[in-house]
Design goal:
Layout (H helix, E strand, L loop, with lengths): L8 H31 L14 E12 L2 E14 L4 E12 L5 E12 L4 E11 L4 E10 L4 E4 L3 E4 L3 E11 L4 E12 L6
Antiparallel strand pairs: 1-2, 2-3, 3-4, 4-5, 5-6, 6-7, 6-8, 7-9, 8-9, 9-10
Length: 194
């Protein structure tokens, strides 16, 4: 048998008193240790060496025009530079809301949003896709007033049975029409009738 019941009340009282004192000591030690940690000043990460006004992580932004949602953006981090009126985003994804409930999705390594115009420039592994096509480039611009996406660097567009490459392009989000400039090469697997 592990425990024996001692019928001596003095020993029982002494054991209970010892248990209470040990418990109070442990609680005091935890409390004092916690208070010391509260009084220590945290080390802050040194400020970013750019001239940014504020830097934050995990960002979501929505742009509306005349009460209609134009686009929604998520990014892993952002910094705002007040004197340039721009926000710089890292690892961003943007959803453009078009007419007739259609959407266009954009992802890029970095984006610069001009806060005075809501124009957006994205760069690094830029991919734009909708339900039918996928566009790949290294740099792409969005003009909010004109509702145009354009690229001044080479682009490649692929679909289920076609591909197209051009030195530059512009795409009107309102009319759903694209213009390609410079050397343009296309490959269509479908039968085309004129």
């Amino acid at each position: 048998m592990f425990f024996t019941i001692d019928k001596n009340p003095k020993k029982v009282k002494f054991a209970l008193l010892a248990f209470v004192l040990i418990s109070v000591g442990i609680i005091l030690a935890i409390f004092i240790g916690y208070r010391r940690n509260l009084n220590k000043h945290e080390r802050f990460i040194p400020p970013i060496k750019s001239k940014s006004t504020i830097s934050i992580g995990k960002v979501q932004q929505t742009s509306t025009k005349n009460g209609t949602k134009e686009w929604n953006m998520d990014a892993s981090s952002a910094c705002y530079i007040d004197e340039k009126k721009q926000a710089i985003f890292q690892d961003l994804s943007v959803t453009f809301f078009l007419n007739a409930d259609k959407k266009v999705y954009l992802t890029a390594n970095q984006g610069v949003l001009k806060t005075d115009s809501n124009n957006l420039e994205v760069s690094g592994n830029v991919i734009v896709k909708n339900e039918n096509y996928r566009l790949i480039t290294e740099s792409l611009h969005y003009d909010r007033n004109k509702q145009i996406l354009f690229s001044k660097v080479p682009i490649k567009i692929t679909g289920s049975s076609s591909s197209l490459e051009a030195e530059s392009m512009s795409f009107d989000l309102n009319t759903n029409k694209a213009l390609f400039h410079g050397k343009v090469a296309a490959d269509f697997d479908e039968k085309i009738t004129l």
